[in-house]
Structure formats: C-alpha cells, structure tokens
Predict the structure.
Amino acid sequence: MKGVLLKILIAVLALSPLILVTGVAVGAPEASGEIIHIVKAGETLFALGRLYGVSPWAIARVNHLPNPDLIYVGQRLIIPVPQPPPPPPPP
C-alpha cells in the first residue's frame, strides 16, 4: 500500500510543472494598463463595470462594441484601468 501511494505522489510531483501555464493571467493588468477579462455566462457590461470600477460605456468604447448589450461567453474584453486622481497641490 505504501509503495502505491509513493508512486502516486512521485507521479503527481513529476507532472505538476506541466500544469503551470504561462502568459497573461485573466484579470491581471497588462503593461499597457489594461485588464483582459474573459466573459462568463450571465455577465453584463454593467456588472463588469461595477466589478472593475469603470463605466460600462468605457468598456464598450475601448472594445469597439457596436451593441453594448450584446456580449458573449468566451469573449475577450479589454477593461480600461481607471486612473487615480492627481494629488492635490501642496499648500
């Protein structure tokens, strides 16, 4: 029994590096200051805007969506990152 468990453990550890995926993570900011979001079932531009703190119209504009009410599952959307307000001038 211990031999079988040991073989399974070795196999899992040997294969674990193959599971790692490289590339841009979904939802991670890219170097350009944008986020790539993959649309899931039930999501809307309004909900994505609330999630990321940007207006749904900004998402539609950046992605050149002719009909902002029509997005589909699996669609890659660019989410513009809101810019922080400039600091107030010193007194």
User: Anything to note?
Assistant: Confidence is low (pLDDT under 50) at residues 18-26. The first strand starts at residue 34 and ends at 38. Residues 2-19 form the longest helix (18 residues).
